[in-house]
Amino acid sequence: MTAAGRISDILWRNPRLLLVLLITPPALWLGIIYLGALFALLAQSFFSIDEFSGLIRYEWTLKTYGDLLRPANFDIIRRTVVMAALVTVASAIIAFPIAYFAARYARGRWKAVFYLGIMLPLWSSYLVKVYSWKLILAKEGILSWAFETLHLTWLLEGYLAIPLVGGNSLSVSPTGTFIVFVYVWLPFMILPIQAALERVPASMVEAAGDLGATPAQTFRTVLLPLALPGVIAGSIFTFSLTLGDYIIPQIIGTSARFIGLAVYQYQGTAGNIPLAAAFAIVPIVIMGLYLWWAKRQGAFDAL
Amino acid sequence: MTRLTKSCSALAMLAMAAAPVAAQVTEIGPGEGQVNIIAWAGYIERGETDAAFDWVTAFEAATGCMVNVKQANTSDEMVALMNEGGFDLVTASGDASLRLIAGNRVQPINTDLIASWSTVDDRLKDAPWHTVDGVHYGTPYMWGPNVLMYNTDVFPEAPTSWNVVFEEMTLPDGQSNLGRVQAYDGPIHVADAAQYLMFHRPELGITSPYELNDDQYAAALDLLRVQRRLVSRYWHDAFIQMDDFKNEGVVASGSWPFQVNLLMGEGLPVASTIPQEGATGWADTTMMHVDSAHPNCAYMWMEHSLASNLQSDLSVWFGANPAVPAACTDGRGMQTAEGCTANGLDDFDKIRFWTTPVSACPGGDCVPYYRWVSDYIGVIGGR
Question: Is pLDDT above 60 for B44?
Fold first, then answer.
């Protein structure tokens, strides 16, 4: 009997050994590369920084987490969470009809066109997209020009005059940040909703109609609950991606920091790795809470 | 895991930091083939942005040391990169250099090994931002003012005061400056506000914009909060600022001569000035990492930075002043005596150079830099 044959026999007699052999490399990979890095990050957040030399003091302390609650830092967290929530809601509202059309009506070639249309923006560089949005939204950009041509400048200016959402131009306003976030993350919302809608049998919608439900009732009591897992899956993408992004708020918006940007600046610019790590823990905690809530809502039951 | 190992080695380094300062290099051997430099944008040009400005290829040909440049946008970024390691040299400004020395990130320089040390401007040789207890931690590189850049269509005459970026007002073209001015996205900008107050509110008793007591600091922050209302977006990337002057309707901002020169080169209606309040400025030093892996190439670069066309051509390119005054006149590059005067060679005493604010200042208790960092983030966030 050859060596290979013997090994094969041993593995056949001991299926558990085979399982261990197969699962060890990916488990090590996940354990060391992913969890190890995460743990190292978590550990950093319990250190603090020497405020003059910028070197890290390796003593266990909760001081860095206390810093998170300072008004300026707490603002950053609140700002990011509100933005992520708004982006998620807007993405869901925009994505649902698109996904519905794709799942119900698009056939054959149109389906291909639809997939291409959704995926195409994902193929170009993220930075290129964001910089083009900077030009589109700029004070002397194409959108302002369009409003001017339509004699609607008053409308744009009126909107930009609203505190909290407005600014000197769309490109430097929170609205601009919002628009670009929605644009960039929309595909991640459309695709899961579409997948969920395709699994809803058409007969159920028809049955609801036969039993006298209005279209609104059908949507509320049949379609939405059945498609909810898709919406929640999409919202996990858009919400967590917005929570962590640090490029868009740097280029579009008011310069006010977001969590990702704060992590980037405290780590890369100020060398304050403990505070950056503490900031990085925030989205993890928020996402943990969100997933827990989603599970309680039964979002994962259909998976 | 690597993070963990890093933390451990950093711990070991901390333990070693208690030992005396690392010995300096005593002789220069053959080059190691490369040198890694952290530099400001536009500081190390190899003829790729503009073929006429090249002070790298000749050095590489002569020494065999290939120059790798890592561009940094702020002093904090430079300190962070140096803390991370893997670099030989950094062109550190005064608000970074002392932090690097305090953190044992840079090593003392043996000036005997740098033939052109004697040609360095006497005002810079023992400058406090790179010389501590008589020990030199680098060779002076370049210095200059933070100018006020303005749009000449809006300002037919140069603004005489920094108030155009600090207080709401009507500009010469009849419109408000709201949303049309910018400010630097770095905590050191607090010093610009303090310098403005030094001139306009003498009762505060500010003697140096980098040494502020709590009251003076609070007044500076209040001024910056007013500025927050005027500024749509702060600038930290030179090229994004240039884009904002082109497309975003920005007409005035604190800036570097670098952006002014590039925009003028593109034919945009901009110019720069130093208003009556004076200006903050930078004086940069080439400093050497304590664990430099290519010390010979690093020393060769330091000598090159003082002796070659670099000083002269860079001062033209950046609109700054050479650390070697002879570079203005001896024809080693494009700079002329008039050019140096225009860049402010004679204004050395009017410029307040970037320095890291520390709590132990000559006047007693001052607000230290880390509070500048967190408070400036707060101000930008609308606090």
Answer: yes
Residue A151: CB atoms within 10 Å: 8
**Residue B256 DSSP symbol:** -
The residue of chain B with its CA nearest to that of A137 is: B248
The domains found in chain B, sorted by start residue, are: 2-144+281-350 (3.40.190.10), 147-278+357-380 (3.40.190.10)
Nearest to B383 among A56, A71, A267 (CB): A71
Among A28-37, A168-177, B215-224, the minimum mean pLDDT is found in A28-37
On the CB side of A292, CA atoms within 13 Å amount to: 6
Count of CB pairs separated by less than 8 Å, A with B: 129
Q: What is the pLDDT of residue A298?
A: 66
CB contact under 8 A, A167 and B232: yes
* Contact status, residue B184 vs residue B150, Cβ threshold 8 Å: no
Place of tokens 């593109």: B266
Q: At what angle do helices A174-198 and A224-244 cross, to 10 degrees?
A: 140
CA-nearest residue to A75 within chain B is B381
Single pTM value for the model: 0.77
Residue written as token pair 């794709």:
A102
Q: Which amino acid is at A251?
A: I
Residue B167: per-residue pLDDT? 94
Give contacts of A32 with chain B, Cβ < 8 Å: 1
Q: A37-73, pLDDT tens digit by residue?
A: 888 888 888 888 776 655 678 888 888 888 888 888 8
